[in-house]
Design a protein that fits this description.
This protein is an alpha/beta fold. It has 13 helices and nine strands. Strands 1, 2, 3, 4, 5, 6, 7, 8 and 9 form a nine-stranded mixed beta sheet that branches. The chain is globular and about 65 Å long.
Length: 359
Amino acid sequence: MPHSPSGIPQDENIMNGEGRMVSVIVPVYQSAPYIDACVQSVLEQTLQDFELILVDDGSEDNTAEICQRWQASDSRIRFLAQGHKGVSAARNAGIREAKGEYLFFLDSDDAIHPELLEALRGWAKECRAAMAGCSYSYVQSASFQKPLEATVYQGRMKDRTYMDAHEALDCFIHGREEGILFSIGGKLLRKDMAGPVRFDESLQNGEDTKYIYQLLLGGVDVGILHKPWYFCRQREESASHRRTPKMYESTYRAERYICDEEWRNGRKSNAKVREYCIIRQMINRYMESRQKQDQGFIDCLRNQAEAEPSLEIWGQLSLGARAEFYLAFHSAVLYKAFCYFWEMVSEHRSRIREWKKHL
């Protein structure tokens, strides 16, 4: 029987790529230092019924060469190349080529626990969920190999959660379950449930959050495995760490879409939750930009701040939230005084609650 580079036998009847259980989709761009660890973590899965689709998004280093070597070494690995169109286009290309019953999304600088695919598929089938995901483990790049070697986890297949589509949407809107539903990495999705939904190729950031939201709107239910088996590499140069006005505007557009859709569909309380998140993020970024004297970011945020009060939802926000937003962008001194006042009020309320507990 043929063997993969990891030494695990490959079943002859799945080597032609047809009928595989899981299609693992990995968009790659300038990933030469990290792609080997990513691929190896897939090949070492206890679930061997998979295909691995590596989609190079126009890398200018030797990423493509490394991917081609992996393709030549294992028949389950397929390599696709395209011009530099962005991560959304790369993921969409992988979805188009996928032959598996399930799609699994993995970033090229991340890795997964050897049992993750088997555990997610097992839980998804048991609870009949269209999508399954796990918790995240965030690791600094310099020490990334350490968690990959510590693969023993006590209490297999415990601490699991199932959410129907309504519960999952509520979880998403309010950021519950550790925010697991905000990112596509580590998600197992039944391909037939994805339907026509694709990643928005006009977004450079926030595209996965919008994609998951659209899936939930379409009725996708979710099974969560509470094990930190998706290893996120933390590196300053990664796309998720690049804080530029362009990246922020992309994130804003994704969040604006979600907020507006909730409002349009009559879920106004949900829309208000997302709007509060939007203005909080705007305030935090603005204060950070002022401290760093980043004029490009300051101008970007001021332009957005001027437009925000014209939205229909604005009048539904609390007076305190609107006042804080106005002061943040018009008077730094009054904003600091406002924040100090509310901090004192919150502390006072907390003391009253503690006092009542002891009555």
